[in-house]
Queue: 2 jobs
Job 1
Amino acid sequence: MDNINFGIDLGTTNSGIGKYENGKVQVLKNPVGHREILSSVVSFRKGRIIVGDKAREQYLSNAQNVFSAFKRKIGTNEIYPVNQQDEITEVSAIDLSAYVLKELKSYIHGNPPEAAVITIPASFDTIQSNATKKAGYLAGFEHVVLLQEPVAACLAYANLSHLNIEDEQRWLVYDFGGGTFDTALVYINQRELKVIDNKGNNFLGGVDIDHAFIAQVIIPRLAELTGDAELWQKVSQKTGVYEKLWHYLNYQAEEAKKELSMSPSVWIEINFPELDISAEFEITRDVFNTVVEPKYKETEEFIRSLLLENSMSFSDISRIILVGGTTYIPYIKDALKNISNTIIDDSVDPTTAVIVGAAYYAGSQPKPVSENPVVQNDQPKATIDIKLSYEAFTNDKEELIAFKTANPFTGYYRITRSDGGFDSGLRSFDQSASEFVTLIPKSKNTFRLGIFDIRQKEIYSNSAISISHGLYNVSGQLLPEDICIELDKNNGTTYLEPIFKRNNILPLNRTLYKVFSKSVIKNSDDKIIINVVEGKGGTMPGSNLSIGYIEISGKDISTDLIQGTDIELMLTMDESRGLNIEVYIPSSGQLIKHSFHISSRDVSVDKSLYDIAQAENILNREIRLSNDDEAYEVSALFQKIASDLNSLKGELHAIKNDNITAEKYRLDEKKRRLLGELDSLTRARDVHAALHKYREQKQLFIDRKGTATSQQLTAFENIVSREGEFLNSGDKHLIEKYQKELTELNWAIFLQSDENYVSLFYNIASRPPEHFKEPANLGFLIEEGIRHINEKNYQQLRQLVYVLSANVKNEFKKRENPDEQVGGGSTSNLGLR
Amino acid sequence: MLAIINQVFELEQKLQSRDDLSAERNFKRIFHEFEEMGYRVINPINRKYSETDSDIEATLPATLNGDLRITRVLKPVIYQKGNIDDISLVQKGIVIVEAV
């Protein structure tokens, strides 16, 4: 039989939902905003029903239609009037609680559950308990099991701390939340857990501490610094600019409170130009504690009275369980420790402890067979046919999603953006509706449309509404080819890195941050080459059309350019595909601007000769390899290109000083064609090889995953999450880049284990003497190493491996990527990396 | 990481409030590096307030009349990039909204 598995903390201020699965509890996150905690606030405005933080935002401005803390009124006859578009409707605390529960249900992926455990305060009577159940049924649960909050909290601590309770114990639950305080005495033994008694105050919470902190600590300091003795009066009236100051100070107080939970003091910086206030002052935890103390004392009175009424003292309490965000404050923990002299258990996140406990309980409860007398839910599932219309590609910041159904239908709809940044809230839907949705620029925005029946049960959803901003546009100017920059590799060759991708909408701009791969001395003839080409990233640079070519020689610069220092390239391409390049050299502050238009491109004969020289290196290797493999047909193809390039080289030398005729353009065209042929012969194979290497390293990491640190795991996940970007790019350089990152990770994991230094030692020790810079004392070092291994003295062995490794000549240090010259001094041609 | 981004953002705001733009280029570079690391930082200042924008936590004025705009950003909006099409909100912007 299935268990319930879903546990809900339906709180006065905040709520949340957890799922029990395979012995563990996961607190689910809101798909909108990705937070675990949902504010228990519901607002109604202009036909829109919003639950959570966005509803809380309107607490001041739309006070009559924003409802919070309704849990206090559940089970009473109190009705809340909602004034929407001149129409007054009525909602009860049960209805409002049901909205919160429905919102929590929306956190669940897949089919919504039929049953849930919902927590209630220990103080709830039968009517309040039944009213909570009714809210659960209204929210669409067929079965609802209630659990007292203190019991849930104790369950969370007992399960997560793996406590082994062998005798009878009494625990005290201290629940100090944002707006309420509750304390309960709980009896626990090997088999059961029950609440003995409880007390609480519905109007005492962390927010009271925040406000006292502003009034008693921050405002007096500000008043002193500004000389405005009436500052508190003005701020507390919250009018005009002082309303803004009040909000600003609330934020600062909240941040300072968090920091004071970890540090003994905090610097508060008040920067409020509207009132010309710019101040900075230090607040110590001792000063903050003077504000906390009176609020804490109130809670202490409740505890003392609870114990007294149950004829107990602190010595009867085995453990105090902390629940609620306010218990993060160190003063509270210390004070509880001082008065009770017992264990203060803060081992579980106090903000989610009740959710976790409820989910654990749900994981142990089988789904009841039948229940729910209140709302019948046996109607067949409704179906609806929705016709959608929207622009899939746009350059606007907002887009309209319109939808309608052919058959008569009245209910609700809700549109959310998958990244969590947009939520329409629940809106009424009468056959047709439309909604303006906001878009993240230069991204694919994916929306979900849900249609709900009159009881807000979802009957239709579409998660594939995709609106791309700035990526494609049928009516806009599209970039027909990638635009790339040519950069140096470590092995003396060059490669293309994409700047603008094909199909992006013009105009485009981007800033690239690169480093100089060689030094250029002022007034020398040496130069840096910036070459921007039109063509696919990963292809041979010389096979593409150069559309922006800049040479910065020693004569153009105001100071020497030093290898390894930064260079910034601001590239813009306008709608008519004119390219503008601004080069900024931060070390000298020099700015060099160039504009290019495709019709006035420059062709450098030197650059063409350089491209040919690069291609000849590749061709020599390819001809040798294909001859070795007896692939004579392929070898003949390479030889033909080599021969054609050789004649082209002659022609280029002949026109080197010809600046009049168009001959150099013709030869450039020819060069690009020949290099394109070479590229198409080699690229598919190189990409395949790069992919193979990447997959090898990925598998190696997976095999070693058990010994990876959390940082290494995160780095691995980051690489894997980008696979969509590079695996199908056809760009071997891009694939190699990530393969190298994986190789470094694998190498780091390897070196984490002392034992691995044994194999490393034998690897180095078995090298011939000519591999070492100073082979003289090699024998002694190897003997030492063997002695360390025999004595299992791995720390010493590790040191020795470092010494031996440093003694190996650079040219023998290659670990991976034979085309990479590790430590052997890199070569550079263009001067940019 | 989010704490570092917030500190850099605050530093930029502080210099801007003093009309000190000398480090703008450096900030641009730092935010570029954040983006390379998968973090997209958005400053929603002057954006029109909409209750459907769940990427911000706003404090609103007592009355909702007039043109409501974000006039102060205490924390920026931060999205994190997963793979090529997948981004998610990792920090809501904390903002103050006023009628302007």
Note: The mean pLDDT of chain B is 88.
Job 2
Amino acid sequence: MNLEELKAIREKAQKDIQLRQKEGRIKIIVGMGTSGIASGARGVLKAFVEEIAARNLVDVMVTQTGEKGLASQEPLIEVVEEGKPTVIYGNMNPEKAKRVVAEHIVSGNPVLDYVIETT
Amino acid sequence: MLAELSDHVMDIAMNSVRAGARNISIAIIAQRDKGTLSVSIGDDGIGMDEETLRKVSDPFYSTKAGKTVGLGVSLLKGAAEICEGEFQMRSVPGQGTEVEAVFPIDHPDVPPLGNVKDTFLLLCVTNPEVRFSFRFSADGKDFEMDTKQVNDILGGLSISHPEVVTFLSNYLEEHL
């Protein structure tokens, strides 16, 4: 594999202008402070990144932040969507992350079993 | 508390991101002839003055507002020192910070490398505004990657685009 192969992906993606305009509709923010990482946040972050890529969700951005001050409920994630309350999920693991993508991100129904706060 | 060196790298590199770094270099180098495994992270973030630098490896100190425990640096320092290795941290306000831990490669308490591939991938695709340069030389592999090269090829398409993420995941799997 060679990085130059990325040119083909660029050309294909640039053809779809409509999709590019929707980039960042939803932001998933994973708490990756020291205690988050120690609680397994890296596996959660990986599950989100892989699931979003596998479903080709170009309008979803996965990013990281530090400690959220709720160490007992880590790994923590926030789902931020314009015009909707921010949803905070706690005690996440890779399996729960996949469920959040399927039900909340794709279908628009927050997974109430894992919600610890909405703001 | 952090079981693998790749977790330490993720943790310290995220400190760099939060310190406003736009360029972060990460190197994991094993030198069999010297008997060392070194892990270094350098950034061009806000840096620290001497007093902050002195305090930052204290596990009960944090630069982050509202937070009293800053474990990341002290955990890496502790991991190096428990193996009779070395830890150094240099910082200049306004210029950036460098952290380096050197482990005696054959010491039984050296943490495992863990999944370096995931750490590199997750750092670059979840922080698309930061330029990362990675160097890995261990286990018979010698690998370098600079996200500037990736972004130059992508010509404005985000490094976090799903197809780019899948490509980079496979690319790192093949080379690391």
Note: The mean pLDDT of chain B is 91.
